[in-house]
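Replying to the earlier thread about multi-chain prediction with a worked example.

Input:
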Amino acid sequence: MKRQDTPYGITALFESPDQIIHAAEEVVRKGFTRFDVNTPYPVHGMDGAMKLKPSRVGFFALAFGLLGAISSVGFMTWVTLVDYPLVIGGKPCWSWPAFVPVAFEITVLLASVLSVLSMIVVYFKFPNVSHPLHDTDYMKRVSSDRFGICIQADDPHFDEAQVRQLLKGVGGEEIRPVFFEEEEPAGAPKLFDPRFLGVLLLTAVATAGITYFSFNVVLYWEPFSWMSEQARLNAQEPSSLFPNGVGMRPPVKGTVARGFVPYAFAGRPEDAGKYLRNPLLPTEDVVQRGRKRYLTFCSPCHGNFGQGNSRLQGQFPNPPTLHSDKVRDWPDGNVYHVITEGQNVMPGYGSQISREDRWAIIHYIRVLQRAHNAKESDLK
Amino acid sequence: MSSAAVDYTQEAPVVEGQPAASAIEAVIAAPLDEFPSRTWWIAFAVTSTMLGVGAFCILVTVGWGLGVWGINQPVAWGFDIVNFVFWVGIGHAGTLISAILFLLRQRWRTGIARFAEAMTIFAVMCAGLFPLLHTGRPWLPLYLTPYLSQHGIWVNFTSPLLWDVFAVSTYLTVSAVFWYLGLIPDLATLRDRTQSTTKKTVYSVLSLGWRHSNRHWQHFERAYLILAGFATPLVLSVHTIVSFDFAVSVIPGWHTTIFPPYFVAGAVFSGFAMVQNVLIFVRQAFKLKHIITLDHLEKMNKVMILTGSMVGYAYAMEFFIAWYSGNQFETFVFLNRALGPYAWAYWIMVTCNVIFPQLFWFRRVRRSIPLMFAIGVFVNVGMWFERFVIVVTSLHRDFLPSSWGYYVPSLYDVGILIGSFGLFFTLILVFVRVLPVVSISEVKAVLPGGQPSRH
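Result:
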């Protein structure tokens, strides 16, 4: 590598820590600011001799520590209170004493790792392996057992002869200039350099390929597939174990599902209307529940507001409106009977909607009917 | 040096003799440039064979499932958790030496800190192996972290097992950063003294361009102090959280408030024993007897009396509380420990941890290499059995006598334990060949005449 003509600075080596402290003090006294002291280990008292301001690395640690504490507690709060509240062991969702360990660990992690990283990047401006001092005899000596001073040529007081004299006066040996290396022809790295873009593209393709391969191919290999492929029968699978060749075991005839008590008025709509009473009170909770069930089970045909105007219109005999006089005058029991057993083309929903939900739906239908034919007094 | 000549009223020199700074780096860097000796190859062959045994047992475990291990109801935590706690504990000495002794301005730590920190990292790596295998599906560790998924559900932030994941991974990361930060100046020194172009490139990259500048040393020292300040509560928290795995449960014998301090003391105890054992070989093999002096080893032995006595106190206190609490289940568990089917393990633990270290009260024992080595080995055996006693005896006879059982580890359990020792010592053997085992810059700084006379 060719070197440039202008020196980076003048270096001098010293034997002992006492000498280097003295030299640093003298250099500062002469008003130099752009100089550096290189020693194989930190020499006590050098900060004072060089008149360095106290290190501010601690503020980084404070900032990152606070960031870790606040973000971890905030995250756990959001998870346990907002995103997925889950009662564990009967304790409150926001059990803050249990958050202390994780909050502490994240605080320490961010504070230590990030403050070291920022020190390296912000204060040291590392990585930088092409400093003029690198690979010089001077560096080799201060790396081992000598103490060195380098006064830079860009210091306003720099004058080569005077600097040499100063360094000699304080006991410096091997006073030598250090030169910049000639810059590489490529110059500063460019953002849109085709080689750089090519590397980016290759990285993107490789990352995408490896990710796709791992998640869509490798995860289906043995043994990773063992969680899903087990010695058991899935629903709808055939099985030679049972005489009818069906893997699923249907319940015994006459089995009653939980919450589904057999309907007492099967085929007797009049009796249903006469004897059945809605066991639920039309509270807001019940109506909201009825609304939810109505929108799930009834609205596909009867429409969102019970007007029989759903998007199925014209495909079947039109589903009737629920605002007809007939339905409005029906007792709740008749509506319940129709929901349970069905009517004309409508199938029965007795096996799909629980009893309570059916009654809740009826309350909601009554709300719709009242809203559709509101009286003068309702509007006040 | 004869033991009678030690004068404890004078501070022993940190480095013996008057070596020059260049001689220090020459002796520390020597192993990196030499072809490994025959002894090294023999040691490497032994440890990598142990590692191979472990790798085979791990393959069988992964291929066949956890059924090849000895664990079953009622002892569902066996060797895996015992080994995990053991290895995490070994690591604690490293952080104690590098961080706590640094804050206490103990200059003798400089000779042993780098090695102890490396041991921390390797021990935590060994420790991490066991919970991962215990999950049965070691390729799915992502589920241990709070990750975004379609399930919408998160990890349980109130579970000690989750705290463990955070504590151990933070511990590993921070220890590695601490270790690397201390290595940067040494790597720069190696970069400037090596003759090989390849090594020079590697050291240049790893040292990031360090120039021994005092404008950098200033921040470096501050950052080192801050890291030591963080690592100190961190190391205490890690074994505290490991002890929460037990203490937060409601099993008699586990559910005690003494666990956190008792675990931390035990961890430091076993860790110092391990550091002492390995350093005895390192100082011999690499001619570092003037840097890792007998005085350093003696100080480590003193730490072992202290922590060993704390552990002994905890054993006694557990029995006292079992009686004093009036809780009959607690009383039963502790009587069962000392007199039940696992009494043999309990008494191995008490002998090795409480009785043998007390021999260090004698100066002759403290300064005798063969005796201290033997006691160090006993301490580690004892501390391994302590975790065995805590995990297994508390589980094998629980509230229902109908579900009592006796845990016997399978050969695969033993194989993986051997493998973890193989991994640990193989990593150490590689480490002593590729990186300086003693901090070059720190030792130079504590040499006689290394600092200005006014300060």
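The radius of gyration of chain A is 42 Å.

Feel free to reuse this layout for your own posts.
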